[in-house]
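Researcher: Quick test of sequence recovery. Tokens follow.
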């Protein structure tokens, strides 16, 4: 298990001995599959944001995110960071703000969301939009 806050700021390096492509700025989650879908990074030679599909990731560890491919994603989802996002139940009740997200670094599967009001199991995630992360009450 790893946390989003542990991954943010890590260098992204290709499998070869080349230098870093940049540093992780955020992880994008596909709420329907409850898994990380993309890695967003900034810096490197391009000095702009690059979005890699999760399939390009070979390994995520405490020192770096290693990628097998540096090909940018064909379709880039909107930048909707979970960290700091407001959390509402499907009935519109406040459930705090997202502090962190636990995920499986091998599969990208989201395990839990930690909010200012406690832990939310991944199976309670319903939707993510500009306004909030929506979760099933429970």
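Model:
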């Amino acid at each position: 298990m790893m946390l989003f806050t542990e991954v943010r700021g890590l260098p992204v390096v290709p499998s070869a001995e080349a230098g870093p492509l940049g540093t992780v700025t955020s992880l994008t989650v596909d709420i329907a599959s409850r898994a990380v879908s993309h890695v967003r990074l900034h810096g490197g030679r391009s000095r702009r944001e690059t979005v890699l599909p999760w399939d390009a990731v070979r390994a995520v560890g405490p020192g770096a995110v290693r990628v097998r491919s540096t090909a940018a994603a064909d379709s880039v989802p909107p930048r909707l960071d979970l960290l700091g996002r407001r959390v509402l139940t499907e009935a519109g009740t406040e459930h705090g703000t997202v502090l962190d997200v636990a995920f499986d670094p091998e599969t990208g599967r989201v395990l839990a969301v930690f909010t200012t009001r406690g832990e939310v199991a991944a199976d309670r995630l319903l939707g993510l939009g500009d306004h909030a992360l929506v979760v099933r009450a429970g």
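The two ends are 24 Å apart (CA to CA).
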